[in-house]
Each structure stands twice: as C-alpha cells, then as structure tokens.
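From the methods appendix. Each design record in this collection lists the tokenized structure first, followed by the designed amino acid sequence. Records were kept in a plain field format so they could be parsed without special tools. The example shown here is representative of the layout used throughout.

RECORD:
FOLD TOKENS (246 positions):
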C-alpha cells in the first residue's frame, strides 16, 4: 500500500519538532560564527597588473600579428611565473621559507594583454611585497628565459589604509550554516517521525487498521479522582454530623 503525506501532516511534523529544528540551527550558526570570528586566521589579498607588449618601434601603426603573438604568449607566461625559476628568486629576495605556489594566482582576461598576479597572505604587507616582487622578478627574468623584452608593470600592488580580509567571511559562513542547519533539523525531524511507530491518537489507529474508531476510553487522572472522592466523603460526613447535632 502506498503512503501519501499531506501538507497538513508535514506542517504538523515541523511544528511538533520545531524545538529540535531551532536548536540544531542555532547551534550550527553559533558554532560557525565562533570559529569564523575567533579561530580562523584572516587572509588578505593583493594584486598587481603587468602588460605584455612589444617595445615601441618606428612603425606608425599597431601590428596585429604582434598583438596576437603577445596574447598567445600569456598562457606560457602564466605557467612560467609559478615555476621555481621565478618563485625561488622571489623567496630569496624576500628571505621567505614558505612555499609560494599556493599563494599566487595568475590570470588574464580573454583577448587581453594584461596579466594579473594575485597573492593571498595572512599579512597584508607581505601580500603586497610578494605580488610586486614577483612582477619585478618576472619582468627581469623573462628577457633571459624567452629572449623577449615585452613585459612592463602596469599597476603595482599597494597596501590600503584599512585592509579588509577576503576570507573568512563570517556573515556568509553563518548564512550557509543557517541554511544547512535548517535542512539538517527538518531532515532529522522527519526521520524521527518516520521511525516513531507508536500509536498515540485515534487517527493513528484508523490509519493502521483501516477501520473506523467506534469509541475511545478517556484518560483518567487517578490522583484527581481520589482527591475529588476524598472531598466528597468529607462533605457527606460533615453534613451527617450537622444533622445529628441538630
């Protein structure tokens, strides 16, 4: 037999386990917030732009083939920048021991002669130093490596007055935790409801036996009934005593 769940049952299940959903969501958001604000190290980003272009010539117009060649070379330059031939010199100049390959990202826009070197570091000043040093070393070394002199620094990296970390983003992390917490809470609520096979109401009996309920036994509070009987007995005894006294 195929079971169907109505919207009413869904809302009833959510309302019944609302405390569980709220608790899981609150714990998830609070945990992610605490970790993001107090335990994760802020990471800062700095970028420098370099232009791939031939040196000025006596020609009064731009040579399209030279531009096309420069654009094609950018893919090669992207790989060269992250090789030990460049990064080892950067580390030596800055007296660094940490690997730089994972800190540096090189990219360029489509059909553009501008390359962007982006560095992420926990120290904003060091991020700027690595980006600028990498650009300078690459500009100097590419002459020897590729036997061309077509690289110039277009926009060096600078430290802003109030550096803002690019990650972690506590508000975004907490928003994600809110969604995940709600999904986990609702999922757990329906799982508990599905695993709960106890019979609690007349509707449960009708659904299980597929028979109409003809009658139900009301729940009797023994303590309340005992108290009422005791008070009733005292009242009768008091009335009898008053009658005898008269």
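DESIGN:
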């Amino acid at each position: 037999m195929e079971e169907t769940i109505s919207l009413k049952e869904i809302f009833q299940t959510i309302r019944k386990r609302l405390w569980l959903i709220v608790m899981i969501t609150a714990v998830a958001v609070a945990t992610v917030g605490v970790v993001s604000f107090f335990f994760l190290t802020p990471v800062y980003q700095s970028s420098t732009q370099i232009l791939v272009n031939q040196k000025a010539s006596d020609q009064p117009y731009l040579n399209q083939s030279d531009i096309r060649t420069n654009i094609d070379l950018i893919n090669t330059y992207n790989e060269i920048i992250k090789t030990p031939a460049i990064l080892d010199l950067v580390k030596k100049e800055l007296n660094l021991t940490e690997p730089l390959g994972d800190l540096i990202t090189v990219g360029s826009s489509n059909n553009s002669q501008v390359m962007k070197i982006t560095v992420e570091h926990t120290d904003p000043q060091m991020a700027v130093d690595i980006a600028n040093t990498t650009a300078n070393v690459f500009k100097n070394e590419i002459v020897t490596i590729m036997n061309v002199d077509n690289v110039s620094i277009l926009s060096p990296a600078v430290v802003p007055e109030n550096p803002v970390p690019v990650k972690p983003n506590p508000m975004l992390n907490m928003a994600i935790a809110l969604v995940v917490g709600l999904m986990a809470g609702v999922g757990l609520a329906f799982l508990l409801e599905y695993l709960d096979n106890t019979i609690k109401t007349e509707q449960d009996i009708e659904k299980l036996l597929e028979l109409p309920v003809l009658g139900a036994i009301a729940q009797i509070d023994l303590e309340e009934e005992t108290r009422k009987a005791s008070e009733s007995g005292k009242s009768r005894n008091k009335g009898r005593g008053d009658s005898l006294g008269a």
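APPENDIX NOTE: The chain has a mean pLDDT of 82.
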